[in-house]
Amino acid sequence: MHIHKEGYSVIKWFLLGLIGLNLLVFLLPLKPAYSLTIGTLSLGLLFLVVRFFRVPHRRLISDESLIISPADGKVVAIEETTEDEYFKCRMIQISIFMSIWNVHVNWNPISGSIEYHKHHPGKYLIAKHPKSSLLNERASTAIQKDPDRAIMVRQIAGAVARRIISYTNPVNEVQQASELGIIRFGSRVDVFLPVDVKIKVRLSDKVQGRRSVLASW
């Protein structure tokens, strides 16, 4: 496991803030029990922030006949819907909710070319909210595998998540399981698939990015 590059500055400023807080507590005439409690809570918060930016080393799935999960989390929706942003057609939507305890790095579910990428400003509804896919801050990326096969991955900010980072640009070629980006502090990822794929997950399944199979062509 290692720490994601996007976490370095956050961890640094968070650590400096905690050091300043604990120095102030040390200088104040507080009871030792209060100082110990604040120090313990500070260490716990620092541990959680560092843990959030972890990137686990795991054996990845590399199989062009499969569509792998772009994120760690829980499957909260599997439904046929109309994708109105880019494809303008009926597709299967699989939604993965990422709690603050999950790894928050996102990966490309398939290999192909980036045909579309757009960041949308928006609200910060709870990521489980059905309208979060349309109203929250989000970033949509369409990956074209071949003329007949394409998908979209939509990174969605949540009530706590305040920044979506994507490393994709139109016309770029990406490899399956390569890094797509990261969402800070609790969020959701929607995957839009052609209606003729074979779904391999069920509602409430817990999935892992780069390892769990969402569907097959």
Summarize the structure.
The protein is α+β, with helices and mostly antiparallel strands and 217 residues long. Helix content is 21%, strand content 38%.
Structure description:
The protein has helices at 7-27, 32-52, 132-135, and strands spanning 2-3, 54-55, 66-68, 73-83, 89-98, 105-107, 112-120, 138-146, 149-157, 164-166, 173-174, 179-183, 187-193, 198-199, 206-207, 213-216. The protein is an alpha+beta fold and 217 residues long. The chain has two domains: 2-55; 66-216, Glucose Permease (Domain IIA) (Distorted Sandwich), CATH 2.70.70. A hairpin with a 2-residue loop joins strand 8 (138-146) and strand 9. Helix 1 packs antiparallel against helix 2 (32-52).
How helical, in percent, are the residues? 10-25%
State the shape: elongated
| CATH class call of the largest domain | Mainly Beta
Averaged pLDDT: 85
Instruction: Kindly give the count of domains.
Output: 2
CATH-assigned fold name of the largest domain: Glucose Permease (Domain IIA)
How much of the sequence is in beta strands? Answer: 35-45%
What is the annotated CATH architecture of the largest domain? Distorted Sandwich
Task: Describe the main β-sheet briefly.
Answer: 8 strands, antiparallel
N to C succession of SSEs:
EHHEEEEEEHEEEEEEEEE
Distance between the termini: 32 Å
Number of helices: 3
Low-confidence runs: none
Indicate the radius of gyration in whole angstroms.
20 Å
Number of E-type strands: 16
- The order of strands across the largest sheet is 11-7-8-9-13-5-4-15
Structural class: alpha+beta
